[in-house]
Specification:
The complex is a heterodimer of chains A (758) and B (185).
Chain A (H helix, E strand, L loop, with lengths): L1 E2 L5 H9 L9 E8 L3 E9 L3 E14 L2 E15 L3 E8 L3 E8 L2 E9 L3 H17 L4 H8 L26 H13 L2 H33 L10 H47 L2 H6 L2 H43 L1 H7 L3 H38 L1 H6 L3 H54 L6 H43 L20 E9 L5 E10 L4 E5 L6 H8 L7 E6 L2 E2 L5 H7 E4 L8 E2 H6 L7 H10 L3 H4 L9 E2 L8 H15 L3 E5 L7 H14 L4 E6 L10 E6 L2 E6 L1 H7 L2 H15 L5
Parallel strand pairs in A: 1-2, 11-18, 11-19, 14-17, 17-18
Antiparallel strand pairs in A: 2-3, 3-4, 4-5, 6-7, 7-8, 9-10, 9-12, 12-13, 15-16, 19-20
Chain B lengths: L14 E5 L5 E7 L18 E7 L1 E4 L8 E6 L5 E7 L5 H14 L5 E10 L2 E8 L2 E8 L1 H4 E3 L5 E4 L5 E4 L7 H8 L3
Antiparallel strand pairs in B: 1-2, 2-3, 4-5, 5-6, 7-8, 8-9, 10-11, 11-12
The chains are: A alpha/beta (758), B mainly beta (185).
Amino acid sequence: MLKLCELPKAAEVFFEQNNIDISSALAVMRSDMAFPGTKADTFVVLTKETLYVAEGVIVHKKGAKGRETLFDCFDKREYSLADMSEPKTETLISTARVTAVFGTDVIPMFDVSSACKHEANVICACINELKKDGKIDEEKHKDERSKEKFCPKCGMRYPDQQRKVCPKCLEKTKLIKKMATLFGRYKGFVLLLLVAFLASSALSVAVPYVSNQLLYGEVLEEGGSMYGMIGAVVLLIIGVRIAFLIINLIVGTLSSRTAAQVTYDLKMLIFDNINKLSLSFFTSRQTGGLMTQVNGDSTTLYWFFCDGFPYLVTNVLTLLCVMGVMLASNPLLTLFAFITVPIFFFAYKYLFLAFDKLWARNWARRRALNSLISDVLNGMRVVKSFSRENEEGKRFDNRNRAHAETVAEAGMLSAKSYPLIGFLLQAGLYVVWGVGGWQVMKQTGNMDYAALSAFIAYFGLITGPLQFFADVSNWWSECLNAMQRLFEIKDSVPEVREAENPVSLTGVKGDVKFDDVVFSYEENRVVIDHISFEVPAGKTVGIVGKTGAGKSTLVNLLTRLYDVTEGGIYIDGINVKDISFKSLRENVAIVSQETYLFRGTIKENIRYARPDATDEEVMEAARIASAHQFIIKYPEGYETMVGLGGKDLSGGEKQRISIARAVLRDPKILILDEATAAMDTQTERQIQASLTRLAKGRTTIMIAHRLSTLRDADFLVVVENGKMPEKGTATELLKAKGVYYKLYKMQAEALKTIGIEE
Amino acid sequence: MNGITETIYFTAENAVFYLTAGGLIGLKAFMPPVGKDDLAEDGESDNSPLWQDLGRVFLHRAFPYDMPDKFISVLDKDGKEYGMIKDISALPEEMAQIIRAELKRKYFCPVITKINTVSAKFGYTYWEADSDMGKLSFSMHDTYRNIAKVGGNRLILTDVDGNRYEIKDYLALDRKSFRKLELYL
């Protein structure tokens, strides 16, 4: 049985009472909704003949035998599989409805929320399989199920299915260990650091001893062991200070270097991995957000390891040393000294929460302000053309004021609270003065003026660490989170993977074959629906269809930006999945609609396809792409800077440069995906003429919605709603009077209205 | 600018909305023939309106937040628009009722009345709340971005699965609930 959920005992009992044999069920699932759109517990059981739906709620009751869990059913329905066809999940705004056709009517069977859409899809797939083959391929669906939804340790549902992290069971130690392996490479450094920390802590304890206890107790005190040796003591104090300084210098330099190196390694690791990931990773996240995340997170880690980690070690050591010395010299006084510490911690936590809220609000408002600025600056053309400057000014004024208010609020709070917090911490000192002074006067507790003075100096040493520890827990969770996200990117596995023993292509002919290809970006939304066609080597095929029909998706599958869901794509009879990435991309070049030029010169951009190309070759490629003429009109010719911050090229110019790029690559299979859409017809003709010459002995796949673009294609493939209703030469298709004929007529008519007849 | 495009507005005079056998919305309407292509085969065809049964239709709000009861687009299964309902309440009561019920189902969205706990952990927030549909418990990621302010003080919360929850007026929440929410506004 395919268990898409754990069937609770109560539900099992219910089905038994209703004579539905659970043991013969083929699949079960649970939904959290019921008709007509309410929250409930719904159980769906699929058997060989019937789909049972039971809606109700699970209730806990106090019965005769203690607490009982019951399934309180308020509606149960059954649907015969024999009468049912086309079961599917209809997506509503944030929920879904599973329907099927019975006779001529569409009948809704049960409702699911977004959380259970996947299970509903599986049930639909199972019904289809049952009707077709009479059995369910459990393995296939199990495989999908292995994208586990629940934490294996505590059984809690992962809050985010994209990110399999259970916040309850997140293994912090594992994370830290992983982080530590990164540090492992710098074992020597780390060891040296620790030694230096130790010395620094020890010295920081020695400083007050020398400048207080020794100075007042032994040197200035008559009868002290070093009475009168003021010069020597001052030298000693200076010596200790200098040693302290040197060690701190070493610590600072070492830790900065190590931490910088580690974050460098980390960023490198992540960037390398990002490069390898499939395109779907980037489309599922916002790329901008991704970059900020990588940068922000590694900075967080940098600060933690550069500032946090050394401070943590020093502070722990200092605190231990100082407290040890304090306890040894006067246990009672130490107790009094720490009397205010818990209050301090408590106040600090409270204050932190208040600040957190304020800063969060401040941050949100600053973001709103910034987004307005960038919005208006980018859209200045529109603002001016509709003369909305005044309104935009007002909008800015509002947000600016809102932001200023939060800044003032936060500033005022910190002005009020920090002195208070400082006072709380210092309060311990006043207690020490009082109690210690009393002890000195009464000559109890082995106290004298020198010891008290040293004690006070010691107390001064621990205020820093105490403040640090109050802060560190907030830091720590932020840091763990950053670590987690970084490793998540580092450890994610690309969906499109190279075969284990990839085939390297040599002497490619360029036969391309699409064999019964099915593809969907997300479940239940088929984008390419059983498409098959062949392009013999050296031929040109045109793909026609409306926007969003799936044309670009087809070629993205050939270049393996995505992998087919079913079927296969073959080059010279070899499945693209078996071809090594290197040789696949050497032999297939794509010029797509979205052109992207990197920051650099035009020459560099064209040469990106083949870094060893000569200057003549670069120019030849540019000539073929009709780019040469406009490039040499620029004062800097081929050395004009383009891309971000460089010269702003028009859409058509960018397209011509990317065509030149692909031409330079000299691939066996050339794909032009609306590559000339942004150009005027004349330029397009020019390019086409040169491409036709170039296309000799080269397989070309052209995608266009302008039919005139495809005039030179050997044959055409028509794509509509992911299906391929027809293929053939232009003449054949016109005769068939199908989809192509309609498209052709529409465009011809458009031409007719302006007086051109083809 | 009026009258440049021809939009059909369904009213009591030219449309009958009914429930199909499966309890879904169907439509009989007096309108130009549906099903013919934009490009007629031979010249001008007869485009005069007539009564026809369009079968199951799909409804979609044009302004889901500001005007949930006005400007309802009536679509076929491929998302092509037949026409619009300008105002549901202008239709006969029984029709209005079935349309409202269908829209309520489509735009399913529990209304949060009280927030019991919100805890944040590792970039996620975990919510326990009361709603008009009983107790809710859900988790959100990137919480700031997934709480959308839609007109006035209305909020729409979207959880990690894509389920949506509404807060009608966040200022009208009780003080404790508001404090928990406030952090993420």
